Amino acid sequence: MRKMTEQQWRAFVNYGTRTGKLSTSRADGSPHVTPVWFLLDGDDIVFTTEKTGVKGRNLARDGRFALCVDEDRPPYAFVLLQARAAISEEPEGMRRWGGLLGARYMGDDRTEEYAARNGGPGNLLVRGRIDKVVAFAGIAD
């Protein structure tokens, strides 16, 4: 097992269509984990979510979250990012990032479709400044 460099973990999380497993805390302190589409923007993790969904409610109450991105085949690897969310409902930013997320996960030809779908009313744009990174590759080596 080897620790990834910053260049390695950034390349790893940006590769293809890997989803992140987002961990937030419910009001009673219990964990909530769900897969999300995400992008890195410098030192920020960016994603959208529904305002009234579990993720949205949890992040509005407590902005701390963790995002785990992994490779589920040998020799296995993972990157765990811890961050604090800044939440926005600004329509232009939500449409822009909704489109970029759609392009990454569904293809460039569906950018506008996902900009409208994930950038409209009732959605939140979440931007989390990365506070901590734990990243290992070759876990089964």
UniProtKB/TrEMBL annotation:
UniProt key word Oxidoreductase: yes
UniProt cross-references to InterPro entries, sorted A to Z: F420-binding_dom_put, F420H2_bilvrd_red/Heme_oxyg, Pyridox_Oxase_N, Split_barrel_FMN-bd
GO MF annotation terms: coenzyme F420 binding; oxidoreductase activity, acting on the CH-CH group of donors
Keyword annotations of the record: Oxidoreductase
GO cellular component: cytosol
Annotated ranges, domain Pyridoxamine 5'-phosphate oxidase N-terminal: 6-115
Gene3D superfamilies registered for this protein in UniProt: Electron Transport, Fmn-binding Protein, Chain A
Protein's name in the database: PPOX class F420-dependent oxidoreductase
Native species: Streptomyces guryensis
